[in-house]
Amino acid sequence: MPIYKTITVSPTTSVYIWKVTEAEEELSNGIELTPHCQNRMDGMKSEAHRRAFLSIRHLMAKAGYVDSDLYYDDFGKPHLKDGNHISITHSHDFTGIIVSETDEVGIDIEMQRDKILRIAHKFTPIEEYKTLANVEAIIRKLTIVWGAKESLYKIYAQQGLSFLRHIDVMDFTFQDARTVAEILYKGKKSHYDIEFLEFEGFTCVYALKMMGG
């Protein structure tokens, strides 16, 4: 089973990434879904979507969980019954989860595409990236910023939170592989650590809420 990458973020926090190459039947082996999740999967028209769904259950198994350990709140945010924090993402052939015993966490995987240039103004002050050497570098940087904001949105999970107006990702270089971010919403400020990595034309970003932040 191709777990693509495991990252130990801290002694209490891990990231697991899967590259989905197996057939649906192979991915079904050893996976027991709750009736709710079986219904969800049965309703998926796309085989790729079902395969991604199953691969996430394999990632959960790597982290020591089964499908019935997972539940979703009214906002659609996933939770673990033991009180640990989880976030889930999938993009094309890659799926990922982050699990933490101590921190609120969010994760996002995105394919690097030039489409992001057309929507950049909706989520970030684009002028900040005009200094980069070439279009490819701008696409890479914008994808990291988008992934960071997606990850933060998953942690914050409140209707009305705006990527452009409420979430600020501090500038960074590719070499840093990390940055920090702040959310200012309804007069409340919170702070987050962001880390990112790139592979096979994809970007994975994950966020952890800072203690006391």
Automatic annotation (TrEMBL):
InterPro entries (alphabetical)? 4-PPantetheinyl_Trfase_dom (IPR008278), 4-PPantetheinyl_Trfase_dom_sf (IPR037143)
Name the Gene Ontology molecular function terms of this record: holo-[acyl-carrier-protein] synthase activity; magnesium ion binding
Give the source's domain of life in one word. Bacteria
- Keyword Metal-binding, does the record have it? no
Listed Gene3D superfamilies: 4'-phosphopantetheinyl transferase domain (3.90.470.20)
Residues folding into a coiled coil are none
Domain 4'-phosphopantetheinyl transferase residues, every copy: 105-191
Which keywords appear in this protein's UniProt record, sorted alphabetically? Transferase
- The answer to whether keyword Transferase applies is yes
Q: What is the name of this protein?
A: 4-phosphopantetheinyl transferase
The organism encoding this protein is Flagellimonas olearia
